[in-house]
Amino acid sequence: MRLLATIAVKHLLARKRQSLVSLLGIVLGVAFFLTISSLMQGSEKDFIRRLIDNMPHIFVTDTYRNPRLQPVERLYNSKGAIEVRSVKPVTETRGIRGYEQVVDYLRTLPGVEASPMLTGQGVLSFAGKNIAVALDGMIPEDIQDVVTIQEYMISGSISDLIANPNGIVLGEELLRTFSLERGDNVTVTAPTGQVRTAKILGVFRTGRSDFDLNHGFVSLKSMQVLMNRPHRANTIIVKLPDPYRAREIAADLESRFSYKSISWQEASEDIMSTLAIRNIIMYSVVSSVLIVAAFGIYNVISTVVMEKHRDIAILKSMGFLARDIQRIFVIQGFILGIIGSLLGLPLGSTLMYTLMQIEFKPPGSTEPIVMPLDWGWMQFAIASGFALGAALIAAFLPARKGARVQPVDILRGGV
């Protein structure tokens, strides 16, 4: 094998300029492949991270995925065709029955955080202005474990709800509309007719104007009083140590407790499909760069095969087998692929680092944004592996042709 490698290197050095051009194509191909794929994967992971971090991994709601079977359906469904019309559910206080048991079960799972929540609509009033908002009633001690609103606080803290359960946490955009500040009081009116005066304990800014204008956080007890639902919660939010197990655990919860459990993948299924299509397009585009570079290797090795017919004939007459001749030219592609990857990866890393230094501020953004890149080893492995694979395939085709050369025809003056 050492002799075959020596012959392969001699052939490449015999055509230095062409070999250098082919090598440069692989280097640039690997660098651009690595940079673009890392940028696309980084942006996807950043988007999914924001999507995952800004919402619970699982919602357990107080509804059922399928309507309950009526008694007449249970009795006659297997014996004939029936139709039930105008079924009206019994009027009752909505909510998850025994939500404490569901939460206790979830907390027995390793690393899982869960908290009950009562959501509803309310109208905030101040100085003649009325704005409808979505209110989330949660246990103040659990808020920091299951939602990330604490990271967006610009004044006060979520933990202030522990000391003052009758307080409220609102968005900066809403306070600007009301001309209010932290420490002021605002009137909260619920659909049940309950009216409460709440002190503004904290202010958050997420950067999403609709959320900052139409959302608020209160304690679970206050929300139960406002909505006249004592000992009720209509949602249980769950955070997992491994977000990608959300679909599996949601299915288990739904089969165990019957309440509809929605994983973040199910809630964002259209977005996940879009990202999958984007990845296919991205890898198709960046792979074309290396495919073009592989044609350079194909051209160089094909030319070497054409020029070295007599050398191939001599080698075969000396006892070299066809597979040995084929290996010589495949080794040439392997050498170009390896060197191209070794030089292309540092160049790609330099381009990635340069992109990370770029900051830009889109219209409407309050803070500068940097390019999110994925520095995981997988991107480097894919770039070098694809480059090496393309180089070997490009070398194999002319190598197979060179292995079929008949030494008798060449030595007698044939072509």
What does this protein look like?
The strands form 2 sheets. The chain has a 6-stranded mixed β-barrel, surrounded by 4 helices. Strands 11-12 form a two-stranded antiparallel sheet. It contains 16 helices and 12 strands. Helix 1 crosses helix 14 (322-356) and helix 14 (322-356) packs antiparallel against helix 15. The protein is an alpha+beta fold and 415 residues long.
- Rough outline: elongated
Strand content: 15-25%
Multimeric organization: single chain
Q: What's the tally of helices?
A: 16
Q: Over all CA atoms, what is the radius of gyration?
A: 33 Å
Mean pLDDT: 80
User: Can you give the helix content as a percent range?
Assistant: 40-55%
The string of secondary-structure elements, in order, is HHEHHEEHEHEHEEHEHEHEHHHHEEHH
- Unreliable spans are none
- Tell me the span between the first and last alpha carbons: 28 Å
Report the count of strand segments.
12
Q: Main β-sheet, in a few words?
A: 6 strands, mixed, barrel
Q: Give the strand line-up of the largest sheet.
A: 2-3-8-5-7-6
Short description:
With 415 residues, the protein is of the alpha+beta class. The chain contains 16 helices and twelve strands. Helix 12 (269-307) packs parallel to helix 15 (377-403) and helix 14 (322-356) runs antiparallel to helix 15 (377-403).
Q: What are its keywords?
A:
single chain; 415 residues; alpha+beta; two-stranded antiparallel sheet; 55% helix
